[in-house]
């Protein structure tokens, strides 16, 4: 039995996750894909890939892309493997210790996973390590500038051991700057009248 509350929670949830959170998964993957700088043969790593929905949509749109995914939950990766082509490199692990060599990927993406990371600067630096010069880091997560996200943040920090925290737009910018990023494009946007997301795109200097 794992001591990691994230692994314990999502191991139980894996098989029903896509069905239970269909609207949420659709909205977050759709908006992330809109903002990803992609080319047909791009090498892409999805950190916290979960059930592989973002990877599935990337594979459908870019069949020649080289895709990889990382998640700490074996059961979530099993769901991902069932829906993917078999060419994807899926590995168990954590964002602050990525099991790939430096300069492996053109794009590293994280979609609605960052609120589980308790050491965000270390994770950001590790994601940068595996990016090639000129590559792009794309981060999508809840935005605490929206009331529903802020209330969920407060509630989950009190009740859910797996949850770490979400950020307001200004807090996210400050975090990215503290990790060494100077040129950050950050956009926040509504999904409904009640809640919204933000996506940061950072291009690593060539």
Question: How is this structure best described in words?
Answer:
The protein has 206 residues and is an alpha/beta fold. It has helices spanning 5-20, 22-35, 53-61, 74-83, 120-129, 147-159, 169-178, and strands at residues 43-47, 66-71, 89-92, 105-111, 131-142, 184-190, 196-203. Helices cover 40% and strands 24% of the residues. Strand 1, helix 3 and strand 2 form a beta-alpha-beta unit. The longest helix is centred in the first third of the chain and has 16 residues, at 5-20. It is globular. The model has no long low-confidence stretch (mean pLDDT 91).
Main attributes of the structure:
alpha/beta, seven-stranded mixed β-sheet, globular
Strand content: 15-25%
Give the overall shape, derived from the CA principal axes.
Answer: globular
The largest sheet, given as strand count, sense and whether it forms a barrel, is:
7 strands, mixed
> For the residues shown, what is the average pLDDT?
91
- Gyration radius, to the nearest Å? 16 Å
Count of DSSP-assigned helices: 7
Structural class: alpha/beta
Number of strands: 7
Q: Tell me the distance between the termini.
A: 44 Å
State the helical fraction: 25-40%
Report strand order across the widest sheet.
Answer: 3-2-1-4-5-7-6
Low-confidence stretches: none
Element order, helices and strands? Answer: HHEHEHEEHEHHEE
